[in-house]
Design brief:
The N and C termini lie far apart (50 Å). 47% of the residues are buried. The protein is mainly alpha-helical and 392 residues long. The radius of gyration is 21 Å and the shape is globular. Helix content is 79%, strand content 0%.
């Protein structure tokens, strides 16, 4: 095979199937470690500063994952040299994840360089995919520009510390995330079913982090309090799963599929999935932090940051759902907004009551929300689920 044939092969490898491939699931396993490392970073420094640093790192890693969700909705990751490039990106992503605990310290430059490699591989593969498509190529050039700015700022931030370092990180993240707004969305392409499924799977992966937090916390020793806390933790994780996968996931995928390909569909995917799924994932990671601290002393009240992480994580997750629904169908989920407000209102109690009681209250709140929605929207829910499973 000569050079021209190899170029044609790379250019022609386009995604044809909606289903997520095994290689994409394999790639996402690295994100599991990234989530765990972000929780570890915040748990090691349970202060407001530590919380902010953990969320900044999480946002940067999330944006790199989002890039590959868009990429593999255009390029078939299982074909040709693309597979090798994905493996290389996984290795760089792994290095970035390993450096998370010291991403604001001695490993700051390592994190920035590993992140640069992850994003560069994405841009390179997009460039190959856009050789014969001018509109996609223009979008890729814009993405490359915003990525270069973000990466450069992160490298500069690695030579600073304190508030200046945090400020540069924030600016880098803002400019990188803002790139799709500045450079437009017309040229992007995606497969709606694949794109929605990929984001649904990452929610499951994030929920897995909350279960890992339960397992890590339970290592302190099993007694009645720890066992009850573990059961309540699973109940909360299951409730968060239910709130997304019972109905929402089907409605969202259908709405994305019905959107006009091009600008409308791309902007809907960008806002509802690339942006609004981040607070869902962040909420789950904050919950994992709260769970991890709960198991240390189930009979004592939570400290300030773990308390806000536990109840605030639930609230952030629910508020993200409110925004998700509004962006998709322009309707307001009052019950989820109220539940988020109630979750935040639990914070003063979390500072006074045993952590186990706070966990029970959070679980009860989510179970009541689910019961209300199942009863209040029974007919609509049944209709959506029938359509989702291919029944008349």
């Amino acid at each position: 095979m000569d050079v021209g044939e190899r170029t044609h092969r790379l250019t022609a490898v386009r995604r044809e199937e909606e289903r997520v491939t095994p290689l994409e699931l394999f790639f996402d396993l690295v994100f599991v470690l990234a989530l765990t490392q972000c929780t570890t970073l915040m748990a090691a420094d349970p202060t407001w500063g530590g919380l902010a640093r953990g969320l900044l790192v999480l946002a940067v890693l999330w944006w790199s994952w989002v890039g590959y969700a868009w990429l593999t909705s255009v390029v078939d990751p299982e074909e040709g040299a693309v597979r090798i490039a994905i493996f290389a990106a996984m290795a760089a992503f792994l290095v970035a994840a390993l450096s998370v605990p010291n991403a604001f310290g001695e490993d700051a430059l390592i994190f920035a360089c590993a992140y640069a490699i992850v994003r560069s591989a994405q841009i390179w593969l997009f460039t190959i995919a856009s050789r014969e498509e001018p509109e996609l190529r223009r979008s890729v050039i814009g993405l490359a520009a915003s990525t270069a700015i973000g990466v450069t700022l992160l490298i500069c931030a690695s030579f600073t510390d304190g508030w200046l370092q945090g400020a540069i990180w924030s600016l880098a993240l803002l400019l990188d995330l803002g790139g799709p707004y500045v450079f437009g969305s017309t040229g992007w392409q995606l497969m709606p079913g694949h794109f929605a499924e990929r984001h649904g799977l990452i929610i499951i992966i994030a929920l897995g982090e909350s279960i890992v937090a339960i397992g890590v916390g339970a290592n302190t020793g099993l007694d009645a309090g720890v066992i009850v806390a573990a059961v309540l933790g699973i109940a909360i994780a299951a409730a968060l799963w239910w709130l997304y996968f019972d109905v929402v996931v089907w409605l969202a995928e259908r709405r994305l599929s019905e959107a006009t390909p091009g600008r409308e569909q791309n902007e809907l995917a960008r806002d509802a999935y690339s942006y609004l799924h981040f607070p869902m994932v962040a909420g789950i990671v904050l919950l994992a932090l709260g769970l991890k601290k709960t198991f240390l002393h189930v009979d004592d009240p939570l400290d300030t940051v773990p308390a806000i992480a536990l109840v605030g994580g639930v609230a952030v997750y629910l508020l993200a759902h409110v925004g998700f629904r509004w962006r998709l169908v322009h309707t307001f989920s009052r019950q989820r907004f109220v539940a988020a407000a109630v979750a935040l209102a639990l914070y003063p109690l979390a500072r006074e009551l045993p952590a186990l009681v706070t966990l029970a209250l959070a679980a009860a709140l989510l179970c009541m929300l689910i019961a209300y929605e199942v009863l209040r929207f029974a007919e609509r829910r049944a209709s959506v689920r029938r359509m989702a499973h291919g029944h008349e």
